[in-house]
Design a protein that fits this description.
By secondary structure, the protein is mainly alpha-helical. Helices cover 79% and strands 2% of the residues. The strands form two sheets. Strands 1-4 form a two-stranded antiparallel ribbon. It is globular and about 85 Å long. 45% of the residues are buried.
Length: 341
């Protein structure tokens, strides 16, 4: 029995860091390299990295949101509306690229703030509030675009998405920059500790003097801002902004974040794990496309990965709670024995 417990503990410890998700990533790479000759080619691997980095920027914001114990299902629509607004401003109004980027970031941030405001001021659950914002933002995207695609054949703009430095695609640098900044904020600042405390136990955090509403607002603003950035980079990468851009991207981002080890229950987020999770999702999608698997089956596999990741997190949480209760019982018994003596 003890050996079984040790094996179970070792299994959970493997997935408590980055070991488990790294193993999954390596297995996917080896599998797809063996079954198709086109996967493990330099041009395809660069494509995978571009795709992973574009979604990774949004996923970094999702990591903050989940760490705070919230969720945002509207980020894909925010991504689409920000991207379309910036694209139309640049193509129809002649707005410079820099102002187009700022516009995309501002719209994303404002919509993220709207999500946070609705959640904190009305008491509407984050799931419902952000779902409502999703429909509003998606509808506005179709309204301003007239349901048509905005073509972006602008070399300086396109270089933002397809350019490279020393053979390394620019989007990789964008994601690394975002991850480093958020890593510092989440792990080296008081704000990061407050966000984690809010996700761990919002009631206790409020009693400790933390403005939890402010933390919820902040993480949704960060997530909206990064959704806007991700949408702008995708505009540059694909040479176009479509009304459907961003559909389902929030689910991919949440999947990558959860697979990377961030807890859906809040209080625990890992940006390094998120980056690896994004690679897992990108490699899986690209590899399955190369072997010709229908996209519907890909959705099934993503769902399975999410369930496994959340299930492992749930088992770990229960094990931690059991250990804490056992420790508390032992301490109480020791105190009782000491008082009797």
């Amino acid at each position: 029995m003890k050996n079984d417990n040790k094996k179970s503990s070792a299994f959970l410890n493997l997935f408590s860091g980055y070991g488990g998700v790294l193993i999954v990533l390596i297995l996917f790479i080896v599998l797809f390299s063996l079954v198709t000759k086109t996967f493990f080619r330099k041009d395809n691997l660069i494509l995978v990295l571009r795709q992973a980095c574009t979604s990774g920027i949004m996923a970094a914001g999702v990591t903050c949101v989940l760490t705070a114990g919230s969720i945002n299902l509207g980020l894909g629509a925010i991504y689409g509306l920000s991207a379309m607004t910036a694209a139309l401003a640049m193509t129809r109004a002649g707005v410079p690229i820099a102002l187009g980027l700022i516009l995309s970031l501002v719209i994303g941030c404002l919509l993220g703030a709207a999500c946070g405001l609705i959640i904190t001021k009305t008491g509407i659950p984050a799931f419902i509030a952000t779902l409502g914002v999703q429909y509003i933002a998606r509808g506005l995207t179709y309204i301003i675009s007239g349901g048509t695609t905005a073509t972006l054949m602008n070399d300086p703009l396109n270089q933002i998405g397809i350019g490279s430095l020393f053979g390394i695609p620019y989007p990789i640098f964008y994601m690394i920059f975002v991850m480093i900044i958020l890593y510092i904020v989440m792990n080296r600042t008081k704000v990061g500790r407050y966000i984690s405390a809010t996700g761990s136990n919002s009631v206790a955090a409020r009693f400790a003097g933390i403005n939890t509403d402010k933390m919820i607002m902040l993480v949704h603003m960060i997530a909206g801002l990064l959704a806007g950035l991700s949408g702008f980079v995708n505009n540059a990468r694909t040479f176009a902004a479509t009304p459907t851009a961003g559909e389902g991207t929030e689910i991919d981002a949440i999947a990558a974040v959860v697979i990377g080890g961030t807890s859906m229950a809040g209080g625990k987020g890992t940006l390094i794990g998120t980056a690896i999770g994004c690679l897992v999702i990108a490699v899986m999608g690209n590899g399955l496309n190369h072997i010709g698997l229908n996209s519907y089956y890909q959705m099934v596999l993503k769902g399975v990965l999410i369930i496994i990741a959340v299930g492992i997190d749930g088992v770990k949480k229960r094990a931690e709670i059991a250990a804490q209760m056992k420790k508390a019982a032992q301490e109480a018994a020791a105190e009782l024995a000491a008082s009797q003596n």
